[in-house]
Each structure stands twice: as structure tokens, then as C-alpha cells.
């Protein structure tokens, strides 16, 4: 049977990744306004979307912990 609770160090690791992904979204959003290249803009938009999803998932993990 799998254990459903996270250990304290695991919670801290998830929190650290959450902070990193939040920082990524903020930086990508700021850079998006400065970028003129279509391909680079698309990459940044995809990164923002993926990182936002990761933030939601990590937040849910921490809420359950």
C-alpha cells in the first residue's frame, strides 16, 4: 500500500519547485512583451502555459499534504 502523506523534506522540495515555476512564469511573461520573433514568442507562450499548469498541480499537492 502506498503512503499518501509527504515527508517534511518532500513538502519543502515541492514548495521549492513551486517557487521556481512561479519565477519562470513571471520572467517569461515579462520577456513576452519584449520579444519580436514569432517563433520565440510561441516558445514563451507555451512555457507560460506549461508552467501555469505545473503551478496548479504543485499547489494541489501541497494543499493535500
What secondary-structure arrangement, pairings included, does this model have?
Blueprint: H1 8-32, H2 38-64
Helix pairs in contact: 1-2
Structural overview:
- The structure is a single chain.
- The protein is mainly alpha-helical.
- It is built from 2 helices and no strands.
- It has helices at 8-32, 38-64.
- The protein starts with 7 loop residues before the first helix and ends with a helix.
- The mean pLDDT is 92.
Largest sheet geometry: none
**C-alpha Rg (nearest Å):** 15 Å
Run of helices and strands: HH
Quaternary structure:
single chain
Strand content: under 5%
Number of helix segments? 2
Q: Name the structural class.
A: mainly alpha
Helix content: over 70%
Number of strands: 0
Low-pLDDT parts are none
Report mean pLDDT, rounded to a whole number: 92
Principal-axes shape call: elongated
Ends distance = 18 Å
Please give a handful of descriptors for the protein shown.
mainly alpha, single chain, 65 residues
Short description:
This protein has 65 residues and is an all-alpha fold. It is built from 2 helices and no strands.
Amino acid at each position: 500500500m502506498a503512503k499518501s502523506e509527504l515527508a517534511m523534506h518532500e513538502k519543502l522540495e515541492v514548495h521549492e519547485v513551486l517557487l521556481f515555476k512561479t519565477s519562470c512564469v513571471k520572467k517569461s511573461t515579462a520577456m513576452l512583451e519584449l520579444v519580436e520573433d514569432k517563433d520565440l514568442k510561441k516558445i514563451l507562450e507555451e512555457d507560460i502555459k506549461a508552467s501555469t499548469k505545473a503551478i496548479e498541480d504543485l499547489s494541489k499537492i501541497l494543499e493535500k499534504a
